[in-house]
Amino acid sequence: MTDTTQLSSTSAPLAAEEAKRLKYYSASQWTLIWWRFRRHKAAMIALSLLAFMGLMGIFAEFVAPYGPTTRDTKYLDGAPQIPSFCDQKGCSLRPFVHGVKTKRDPVTLRAISVPDPNQRVYLTFFAKGEPVDLLGFMPTDRHLFALDDSKAKLHLWGTDDLGRDVFSRTIYATRTSLSIGVMGVLISFVLALIIGGIAGYAGGWVDNIIQRVTEVIRVVPIIPLYMGLAAAMPKEWSTTEVYFAMTLILGLFGWPTLARRIRSQLLSIRSEDYVIAARLAGARPLRIISQHMLPSFTSFIIVDLVISFPYMILSETALSFVGLGLRPPTVSWGVLLQQAQSVRVIEQTPWLFIPAVFVVVAVLAFTVVGDGLRDAADPYSNNH
Asked: What's the pTM value of the predicted model, to 2 decimals?
């Protein structure tokens, strides 16, 4: 009886280990990459941050208490209002901020807004506020948070010189900048697949012509090019038209690097047995490239795609910052940082630099996710 018990107790772990091994060896390539990627803690944290920022951007109308152009003329260049639970009058179970009163600056004699410690305004969630169209087609007046007093306004990250809420503008700018990055990368990705695929599969004179065109595009100076394109954009264009033009421009000039990588990979495998077999079987070039050649290094293409996101976001931010990209009233990270160029801002309203934190976090997060994907896609990595 004892031998039977011991045998069953030792066979259970062996069966579990065998099942785990069978699950590993029968898993698909993408499942293995996901398992390896989950072990990369920094990449998982970065992916969570990007997902959080993306959700905030998608539901900007709900998260932001005000619109990107809504003004609070009673709180110009106002400092951030941080909700608290305690003040000199005691503590409360509900978060609150102090009211605002106006006084004269003793030096400049300019009217400034300062907190009124004698007045408490309580914070409430899922409150009524400005009517908006959630996702562009769902009318609602509910926002994530607001103040009980409908006449009072909460500015978590302060206001700019026109009284516009920095928090709300940053949330809307997050949607604009991330969407430009995503759409620009997708456009460049499709062009890279087509152009790099043709060059790598055809070779010969076709490859030579495509490579010469690629080299011409790579050596074009970017800043003068964008200056000319910005000057060529009609002034009467709407903000939506400028937005799509900006996205298209970034995508049209972002494909050469990825196209060359795809070309080099295809050139290295075009003589493999399975490619020759598909060719002899009568498969068309498009099917050979899409069904046989590209899947052999799809994971590496995805890694390159993720790594190219930071460059696209930085390009939009830099161009909008110097006035060559999006135009107000459209808000993006670059447009918001354009307001923070003066020494006065650094000295008196440093909270206008908060969008720069979003740029840094997004770029670092995409870089870390790209590193994690690269390690997960490499079967010889030591991090597995």
From this structure: 0.83
